[in-house]
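[recover] target loaded
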């Protein structure tokens, strides 16, 4: 490790410092993944992919590379706790253009996710009040989803403490319902009252033996993305009481708690419903889009308790969507704020509210662009909206690949200084980065098939087209802002090959 000149000083962004503890950061990280909705909307398709009871194994195994990438986030954050996270670290490692495009990719995935979650909150708000017919009306669900989006933007604008308290409530409801669902389902399985389709859980469900390579690839592509979102805990690092360490620990803890939650619900659902193609079986295609909704009545029954829990299952998915939307707005606004603070975007995007100490312009800019995109996609075609959501997988794979490899490159001269550095800064992030690079290639090939999604463009799957086009749009935008952001693109604002720390730099 060699000493270098002091890094260029970036004026304080104006965010509220010492506002969040590690627990609040963990809550934000978990909320961003939408645990209830993610597992409910993925488990059925995992079984349909041909995994059967081995779906639990792929939920577990997909966690491993995610954990490796989380180590990369933690190490980079400890060196430079900037709310721009991926954008800042990629710029340090690979230069201004790669850094800018990384920031763009992150914003694209967050915009597409907001469309998905807005549609979810709109639909489930109506289901909560028993308005099932209106829940299929695109105009009505779009209006309600849009209202949710604006309300959550306002909440994020009002202050990080207010946002964090809302996340506690929303996540608490969500996880409580999931635990009760799992406990009741498993108790009925072991007591023999679950029905003839039920199966006692087996340890070999957690190991993917007997699954073909093709099925395994499809299952991994499905399962790995249910963990995305935990990195939101790092985007609020500058507002943490311990910016260098707490957000990274929260990211690791979030991934561990997520896999435990997902495994509990997965095993409970598999054991209770089985993997049959009829009735409540998880291989019954009509149930795949939301297995929890399909199992609610069977698990809880039709008594008063059953009816209450059926409502709470709807509430858990609704709060899941709302919490994820809110936890998506926060990192998106902070990524854009950081880019402006480092001179990669016009200064107007670097404004922070003097009272609330939140990104004022970027919070509302992201919210309004998200609203416009959501309305456009929802009114254009439900199929296009569905494919745009699936396209997020491509951007997630890019984000994780770049960040993991940035960690290896930035710290490459320190890797042999200790076993810890070799593992946590080198080997494990490298394996995670290569894994997600492979996922990117496999996903692009799979999504390009005409029958992969709901739409096709010139014989190419709409998912691949939407994902690739959304990413490529970033290049003309980057060239458009270069003239106004010359210092950044010349490498004078964020020095390539150095990580800022305590006013000095550490040569990578």
């Amino acid at each position: 490790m060699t000493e270098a000149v002091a890094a260029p000083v970036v004026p304080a962004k104006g965010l509220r410092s010492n506002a969040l503890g590690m627990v609040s950061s963990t809550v934000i990280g978990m909320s961003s993944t939408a645990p209830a909705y993610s597992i409910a909307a993925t488990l059925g398709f995992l079984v349909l992919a041909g995994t059967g009871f081995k779906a639990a194994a792929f939920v577990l195994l997909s966690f491993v590379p995610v954990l490796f990438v989380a180590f990369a986030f933690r190490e980079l954050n400890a060196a430079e706790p900037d709310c721009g996270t991926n954008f800042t670290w990629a710029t340090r490692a690979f230069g201004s253009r790669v850094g800018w495009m990384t920031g763009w990719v992150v914003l694209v995935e967050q915009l597409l996710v907001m469309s998905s979650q807005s549609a979810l909150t709109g639909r489930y708000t109506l289901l909560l009040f028993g308005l099932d017919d209106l829940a299929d009306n695109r105009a009505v669900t779009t209006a309600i989803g849009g209202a949710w989006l604006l309300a959550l933007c306002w909440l994020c604008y009002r202050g990080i403490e207010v946002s964090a308290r809302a996340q506690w409530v929303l996540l608490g409801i969500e996880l409580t319902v999931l635990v009760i669902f799992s406990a009741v389902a498993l108790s009925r399985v072991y007591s023999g009252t679950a029905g003839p389709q039920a199966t006692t859980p087996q340890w070999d469900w957690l190991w993917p033996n007997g699954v073909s390579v093709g099925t395994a690839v499809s299952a991994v592509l499905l399962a790995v993305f249910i963990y995305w979102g935990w990195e939101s805990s790092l985007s609020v690092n500058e507002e943490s009481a311990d910016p260098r360490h707490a957000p990274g620990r929260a990211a690791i803890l979030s991934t561990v708690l997520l896999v435990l939650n997902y495994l509990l619900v997965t095993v409970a659902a598999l054991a209770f419903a089985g993997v049959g193609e009829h009735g409540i079986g998880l291989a019954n295609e009509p149930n795949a889009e939301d297995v929890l909704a399909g199992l609610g009545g069977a698990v809880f029954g039709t008594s008063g308790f059953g009816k209450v829990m059926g409502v709470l299952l709807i509430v858990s998915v609704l709060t899941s969507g709302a919490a994820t939307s809110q936890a998506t707005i926060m990192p998106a606004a902070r990524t854009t704020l950081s880019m402006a603070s480092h001179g990669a975007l016009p200064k107007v995007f670097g404004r922070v509210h003097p009272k609330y100490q939140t990104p004022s312009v970027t919070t509302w800019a992201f919210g309004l662009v998200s609203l416009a995109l959501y309305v456009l996609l929802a009114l254009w075609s439900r199929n296009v909206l569905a494919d745009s959501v699936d396209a997020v997988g491509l951007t997630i794979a890019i984000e994780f690949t770049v960040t993991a490899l940035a960690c290896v490159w930035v710290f490459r001269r320190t890797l042999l200084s200790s076993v810890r550095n070799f593992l946590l800064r080198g080997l494990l992030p490298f394996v995670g980065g290569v894994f997600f690079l492979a996922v990117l290639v496999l996903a692009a090939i799979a999504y390009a098939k005409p029958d992969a999604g709901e739409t096709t463009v010139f014989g190419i799957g709409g998912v691949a087209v939407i994902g690739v086009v959304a990413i490529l749009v970033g290049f003309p935008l980057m060239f458009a802002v270069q003239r106004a952001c010359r210092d950044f693109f010349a490498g004078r604002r964020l020095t390539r090959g150095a990580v800022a720390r305590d006013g000095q730099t550490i040569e990578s």
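[recover] notes: Confidence is low (pLDDT under 50) at residues 1-10, 500-508.
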